[in-house]
Design brief:
This protein is α+β, with helices and mostly antiparallel strands. 40% of the residues lie in helices and 12% in strands. It has a domain of 70 residues: 434 Repressor (Amino-terminal Domain) (Orthogonal Bundle).
Amino acid sequence: MTATATRTRRTRKPAAPKHETRAKRGRPAGHWVIECDADALYTVRGFANMTQARLAKVAGVSTGTIGNLESGARIRCSVEVAQRIATALEKPVKELFTLRKLDV
């Protein structure tokens, strides 16, 4: 390096923010979620004489979604999925799903 050339010092970029919780990402405290009643879904599907695969096809969701909701591996779903499943089973949404307020 020559005497006239100056070396610029590189500064570090600020660290990327750590994973933010959903509440910090704009979801207000006490938001609402839709939860599936696994036993009710299983029973109603049985009375409708439908397999998980048939219900999934009619509702337009994956077979895994139906299986997870029935087994309790997944209890929450979107409003759209709840509506599709209830419509496919010809039951009101309230019979299969509950709306619950989360206290965050």
